[in-house]
Amino acid sequence: AYERLLRETRRLVRRSDRAELEMTLLNQRLQDLATELEYRATHDPLTGVLNRAAIIERVNQHAQQQDLALIVLDIDHFKRVNDSFGHPVGDTVILGVVDCLQTTVPANAHIGRVGGEEFTVLLPQREAQASEQVAQAMREAIESREFKLPDGSRITASFGVSHLSRGGCFDDAYGLADEALYVAKRGGRNQVVRAAGSVLHPIACSH
């Protein structure tokens, strides 16, 4: 009877160990799924950068604690690329532009896709002049990249830069940067324009 009881006890212990292992694996899987869902909810599926809602939230969070700069950029004549060569080529261009941004921005920057060909870059605690330099570096990286379009044309982008003091919000920074971007577009594209309040400062560049 003692031996039977001992065997039954060992069998129950083994069953318990298996159940504990299965529960551990299940919990790990649930954590992995939660992480994956959170990533999908906050990131753009094509490029992997933050989506519009996530970058807005990130800007608002930073704005409550510190000054920041916001760069808004738009790929020049992107509709022509899609219309002439198709959306797969357009997607390749977008991915190439994002690669230019990721290899150029500071380590603490956050990149977001806010529209089809429009992106924002959050630069925490970055002064206006330093932000302009970052935007110029991004512009030059895009302009010099070989995108290998069927007609051999180049890709460029226009940039608007704004500075936001602590306590502001995304709409404040985006509104000024978007206005500056519009001036860059009207001024011939492929350039950086900084917004300082209601005063817009175009920055010379090569075309």
Instruction: Give the total of beta strands.
Output: 6
Distance between the termini: 93 Å
The CATH class assignment of the largest domain is: Alpha Beta
Number of domains: 2
Helix content percent band = 40-55%
Number of helices: 6
Spatial strand arrangement across the major sheet:
2-3-1-4-5-6
Q: Flag low-confidence runs.
A: 198-207
Portion of residues in beta strands equals 15-25%
Structural class, by secondary structure, is: alpha+beta
Task: State the CATH topology of the largest domain.
Answer: Alpha-Beta Plaits
Q: Kindly report the average pLDDT value.
A: 90
Shape type = elongated
> Biggest sheet, open or closed, and with what strands and sense?
6 strands, mixed
Q: What is the H-and-E element order?
A: HHEHHEEHEHEE
Radius of gyration: 25 Å
- What's the CATH architecture of the largest domain? 2-Layer Sandwich
